[in-house]
Amino acid sequence: MASLVDVHTHVYLPRYASWLRSRSIAPRILVNEAGEERLLILENETSAGRPVGPSYWDRNAKLSFMDQHGIDISVVSFANPWLDFLSPLDAKSLAHDLNTDLEEYCATSPTLSFSSIKRIYGLGLLPLVPGISISSVLEAVSQIAKAPHLKGLIMGTKGLGKGLDDDTLDPVWQAIEDNGLVVFLHPHYGVDSSAWGEKENGHVLPLALGFPFETTTAITRFILSGAFDRFPSIKILLAHSGGTLPQLSSRLASCIDHDPIVASRLKHDARFYLGKLWFDAVAYGPEELAFVSEIISRAGRYESGTSNTKAIADRKEGSKRMLFGTDHPFFPPLSSSEKWKSVVENLEAIESVSGWGEVEKEGVSAGNALGFFSIQ
Ligand code: URA
Ligand code: ZN
């Protein structure tokens, strides 16, 4: 069976890349003076952009990357900024075509040896843009639910333009929950770029800080809207180990308790909801993984007044909701190397978490993902 499953790995399928090539403003793919293609997707990104090539769209390149790093199975998702920049009409038709393409990409991927399990499964996307009808979004949910190799969908933080606490989305959450689909919540916009000052720091500040904080804000707003109380079985996977939510969860709980408008809105202490989420293990360090696993496990105990700390037992329990990821094809090595540092660091982090034994490491590396995505 599989010993390494990558749940955070992206693709720009050829149809999407062509769309980006046809655009004259970001997000776009342009050809620079040296005749090389460059990807421009982040706010205020200079026209130098990032190198982009087959690792973004070619399945053979994805499979070679997997082989190079010992990854048996990948659960591939579309990369940011998805369909966010399109009109409702274009978003609806491209969502349909891309979900069809992705199902085909997965269905025709090789199988593991001596098994009918595929090496690639997928997370589709929804036409979540302002002005689209909910019935169009629900059609996409149902298309994904019917696709045998799509296990859920990736979603940004904007919803229909008003974020994930927009009550209009309730039928969408309901359909996702009813179909047992996974929602992979992933950032794109970061935070207001005026926070980054004037020094040229490349993409470091938006990627290292802006991305995780965007995820934190989006899932916090979802929690504050009471959506988890209305959809208690919804399966949400947070990118980058939940951003800063684990670090801020007790502060969040305290702010709620002291706020006359919100204090009695939720059924549970805010920390309870962390125990209902799943977290990728894309945190690059063992201490961070240890901390997140401990927090996840303690989450549900605060309201029963039994939050006494049992660090190692908590880390083991919390690890069951953490899943290995790479963020491929992003973060390639700056100079050629056999293995990607970004991947090796995440693998080494899993190996070195104090308190995780073989069972927990195996779970985070593969077993948790097989169960979470019902890959069998
Ligand atoms: N940069 C992006 O634009 N997206 C990712 O997922 C990672 C890095
Ligand atoms: Zn990513």
TrEMBL record:
InterPro entries in alphabetical order: ACMSD (IPR032465), Amidohydro-rel (IPR006680), Metal_Hydrolase (IPR032466)
Pfam families (alphabetical): Amidohydro_2
GO molecular function annotations of the record: carboxy-lyase activity; hydrolase activity
SUPFAM superfamilies linked: Metallo-dependent hydrolases (SSF51556)
Key words, A-Z: Decarboxylase, Hydrolase, Lyase
Gene3D superfamilies: Metal-dependent hydrolases
Cellular component, GO annotation: cytosol
GO biological process: secondary metabolic process
Domain Amidohydrolase-related: 117-290
PANTHER family named among the record's database cross-references: 2-AMINO-3-CARBOXYLMUCONATE-6-SEMIALDEHYDE DECARBOXYLASE, ISO-OROTATE DECARBOXYLASE (EUROFUNG)
Family note: Belongs to the metallo-dependent hydrolases superfamily.
Name this polypeptide is given: Amidohydrolase 2
Organism of derivation: Lentinula edodes
Classification lineage: Eukaryota, Fungi, Dikarya, Basidiomycota, Agaricomycotina
